[in-house]
Amino acid sequence: MGKGSKPTRFNRRQFMQGAAALGGMSVYGLPYGAWAQGVPNEFDGSKFQLAAPEPNPKRGGVLKYAITSRPPHFDFHQSGTINSLGSQGCMFDNLVRRDPRDSGKTIIPDLAHSWEIAKDGKTYTFHLRKDVQFHDGAEFTSEDIKATYDRIRKPPQGVSIPRSTLFTTVSEITAPDKYTVQFKLSEPRPAAFMMAGFASGWNGIVRKKTLEDNQYNLRRVVDIPGTGPYKSKRRVENEVWVMEKNAQYWNKGLPYLDGIEFYHALPFSPELGSAILSNRVDYARICDPVTARKAAQTQGMSTTAFYQSVIQGTWMNNKKKPLDDPRVRRAIHLCLDRPVLVDVVKDVAPMMMGGMIYPFSDVATPLPELKKRLGYQDDTTAAVKEAQALMKAAGYGSGYKGTLDYLVREVASFKLWAQAVQAMLQQGLGLEVKLRTVVESVWFDDVKSGNFDLAVGAVVSTLLDPSDYFNAWYKKDGPQNYGFWDNAAFNALLPQIDTETDSAKRLALIRKAEDIMEQDPPVLPLSWEKINDIWYNYVKGHNPKEYFGIYDVVRFDTFWLDK
User: What is the CATH number of domain 12-224+537-561?
Assistant: First the structure.
C-alpha cells in the first residue's frame, strides 16, 4: 500500500449484495470490463469458502462432458482455443477467479484470499493461501505466481501468449515472502480492468520448477502439475481425457465429483448432438441449434444459449500479394454478403452479424447503424460496385491471375463459410480461391508461419473491453494478429484508448479506430458466435445462463450429480 493510504474494508456480504443488486457482468458489482472508478482498495476474503449454490449437494460420481478437445498443444497459456482450456482448466487454480454460481459476474478469492490496491493504483498486493500443494506434491508459494505471470507478461523467445497484452503496464513482480506477491505498474490502469485480467481462466497458475524444467515452454507437457480440483488420469488422443478428483485440494469441501470424462466431439457436429440426446454424456457444449431445440422439448433436459468471447473471421495475409494492398483488403471486405453468411450456418451454429467490435458490447456501433454501411447492407450491389472500383485502382481491374490458398479449420461452420466466401469472391471480384481443410494444430501452425493467403477460423479474447482484443488481435505484432496487419494510425490510437477514463472521450477514440479498420480491415468479420449448452437436469452446481467468457468458468469444482 502507498504511504498514508487507508483502504476501505469490503467484506464478503457487502461484496455479494452489491453485485446482486447491480446485476450484469461485474467486478465488485461494477460492469464487466468497465473503466469505472470505485473498486475497493482492499478486500479481505480470508474466511470465504466456495460451495455449490444448491443445499445438500451430493458427493461422488463421474461427469461425462462432451466438448471439442483437440488441442494444438498442451501449453494453455499459449493457446487461444477452447480445445485446450475446455478440458485442461479443471487442473488449475487462479490468483483470483470468477464466481461460477452467478455466470462469472463477480470476482472472488482463489489462491489469493485477500488483496490490496494502492491508492495511486500502481501496486497490487495479494496475500496467498498456505498449505496448498501442486498435483506432484510440491508446495505452492508466491514464487510460482511470480514465475507464471513473468512468463505471461513477457513471454520468452519462441513463446507467444495472447493474454500478455493485459499486463503491458506491469513493470515488476515481486515476492516479498512465501505467501505475498506484488504487481507494480508503470502507470495506473482502472482496477476493474486489471482485476478482470487476473481473474481470466486462461491465467491458471503453474509451478515455477515445471517452467524451468521445460525451458518455459509447456507445449509438449501433457500432464502439467496444477493445484486445481482435478488431475489428469488418462488421455486418449481425439477420444477422451479422464480427470480424477484431487484428494489434496486446498478447499476441503470441493470438488464434489469423483472425476470428469471429457469426450471429444467437434463443435456443432451431429456426433455431439447425438451424444447428448442419447444420454451417452451428461453435458454438451457448443451444440447445433437443431439439437438445442430437441433438448428444450425433452423432459429432464435443459439448454441455454449465450454469446461468447470469440470472433469468427477470415484473416488475410498482409505479407502476400494481392493482400498486401489495403485497397484489395477493403474490396474483399465489401464483397462479402454478411446476412447470407449468418444465414448459411443457421442450422449449424447460431451467429449474429457484426463488425470489428463485439456487437453486443456497449461500445459497439448499433446494428441498425452498422447495416447502413457498405459491407453490411442486405443489398450488396453498391458494396460490390465499390469493391470492383478498388480492385481496379489497385491494378487488378482485369482480375488477379493467381489462386488464393484458403486455410480452413475442420469445423462444420468454417467449412460452410469457406465455400460461401469462395463463391462470393469469384462472382464479385473474379478471385480464384482453393480451399485447404486442416485440423486445429496444423491451422494454428500454418497461420503463425504465414503459410496461407486466407484463413478462416476463430479468435478468442479475454475481456469484452476493446483494450484487450484491440491489442491482441489488431495491434502490430499482437499475439493474435494472424494477418500481420500493421496500421500506423491505429497503433497510435491504442495508448489513448487504453488510458482514457472519460467514457465519452474513450468512445470517440474507439469510433476513430473502427473507422480506420473499416477502410483497412485487419480481418474479415464473418459473424460473432453464440453457443448452445445442453445438459440433463441432474447436473447441478452450475449457472451458464449469462456467460460471456466461458473460458473463465472451467473449474467444475461446484458441479455435482443429483442421481
Answer: 3.90.76.10
Q: Would you say 272 and 266 are in contact if contact means Cβ atoms under 8 Å apart?
A: yes
What's the one-letter identity of residue 28?
Y
What's the chain's length in residues? 563
Find out whether 159 and 219 touch, Cβ atoms under 8 Å: no
CB 98 within 8 A of CB 105: yes
Under DSSP, is residue 50 helix (H, G, I), strand (E, B) or coil? coil
- Find cell 508446495 and name the residue: 139
| 309-529 carries CATH number 3.10.105.10 | yes
Gap between the Cα atoms of 304 and 178, Å rounded:
43
In this predicted structure, what is the pLDDT of residue 40? 67
Q: Tens digits of per-residue pLDDT, 104-127?
A: 889 999 999 999 999 999 999 999
Q: What is the three-state SS of 127-145?
A: EECCCCECCCCCECCHHHH
C-alpha cell of 97? 477467479
Alpha-carbon gap, residue 407 to 483, rounded angstroms? 12
The C-alpha atoms of residue 282 and residue 131 are separated, in whole angstroms, by: 34
**65: helix, strand or coil:** strand
Report whether pLDDT(251) > 90: yes
Our separate counts of H helices and E strands in the chain read: 16, 22
Distance, in Å, from the CA atom of 230 to the CA atom of 224, rounded to the nearest integer, reads: 12
**214-235 confidence digits (pLDDT tens):** 999 999 999 999 999 999 999 9
Q: What are phi and psi of 440, to 5 degrees?
A: -55, -45
Residue matched to cell numbers 480427470 = 243
Q: Which grid coordinates belong to 56?
A: 445438500
Do 83 and 72 contact (CB within 8 A), yes or no?
yes
Q: Which residues are paired to 43 by β-bridges?
A: 115
Angle at 399 between CA 398 and CA 405, to 5 degrees: 170
Domain boundaries of the chain, sorted by first residue:
12-224+537-561, 309-529
Give CA–CA dist 282/280, Å, rounded: 7
